[in-house]
Amino acid sequence: GENEAKRLVAEGKIELVDGVPKRAIYPDDEEGSPFLPFWSHLEETGTAEDGKQELNSILGPGHNFDTVKPIGLLKQLLERFDNNILVLDFFAGSGTTADAVLQLNSRDDGSRKFIICTNDDGQICSNICYPRVQRILKGFKNQKGDQVEPKKGALRYFKTDFVEAEPNDKNRRKLDTECTEMLCIREDAFEVVSDKRGDDFKIFRNRDKYMGIVFHEDAIAEFKNAISNLDKHVNAYIFSLGDDPHSGEFEDMKGKISLCAIPEVILKVYREIFK
Questions:
Q1: Which of 96, 114, 198, 232 is the most exposed place for a label (fewest CB within 10 A)?
Q2: Strands 14-17 and 234-238
Q3: Ramachandran assignment for 115, one of left (phi > 0), alpha (psi -120 to 50 degrees), beta (any other)
Q4: For the whole prediction, is pTM greater than 0.70?
Q5: Cα atoms in the 13 Å half-sphere on the side-chain side of 274
Q6: What phi, psi does 260 have (nearest 5°)?
């Protein structure tokens, strides 16, 4: 508006940019934190060549992988967020994202996590990405012969696989195993508490809670007995051939247990095999 334009001119906050009048924004005009540009100086962000040399330092020059993102670039992106985020990289390549997360956690004692995914074309996953992250965690000697200290963290490496739908014991056991792994990832619970009745139910825990998986409905009573004395909340997944959530069977454990929905894609295969 005219009045606002006159006010800005009087305050010296209108500048000509290539002959076009534009409003100038100064830090004092901003509310809250000032905006941080995504890219700072090139020497801090790094280049593709820097990324390649960083990978050389970890694996040696024989990896034959040329399109490597620089660690500085990823660190700059991740520093825009809290230090307890979960980072998902669908195209992990050489594993730069994981490397950046581990370095930042080491620097500020953060609890960032990562899930990185890649196919294994040219054995990039098995020969480059996975070995790189392993070495970052365990420590290694770089090309100069200097010892690089290990970074805190843990690593789990999963491969996709198929479960056939023919209803036999082999496929049932395989489905149980694959489902367990996926639900452990979902709940971030990997420490085994009980698998004595592994064909019927399993119990895992992390720092904050327990996670139980009941594979057969007739094992619910024994599962309830197994979790009755646990000292933290339990998230439970109950496999069922029907649509019954079995909430009635856990009425006496309200506040201690939460019944969680099993992803429909898993249930579909389960019901096909166990029908």
A1: 232
A2: unpaired
A3: beta
A4: no
A5: 18
A6: -110, 145
**How many degrees, rounded to 5, is the angle at CA 190 between CA 124 and CA 131?**
20
3-state helix, strand, coil in the chain (%, to 5): 45, 15, 40
Q: Check residue 31 and give its pLDDT.
A: 65
The string of pLDDT tens digits covering residues 108-159 is 999 999 999 988 888 889 999 999 999 999 999 888 888 989 998 888 888 8
Report pLDDT for 102.
95
Q: Counting beta carbons within 10 angstroms of the beta carbon of residue 12, is it exposed (0 to 12), middle (13 to 18) or buried (19 or more)?
A: exposed
Q: What pLDDT, on the 0 to 100 scale, is given for residue 45?
A: 80
Q: What is the DSSP string of 240-270?
A: -SSS---GGGGGGGBTTEEEEPPPHHHHHHH
Q: What is the C-alpha to C-alpha distance for residues 222 and 219, in angstroms, rounded to an integer?
A: 5
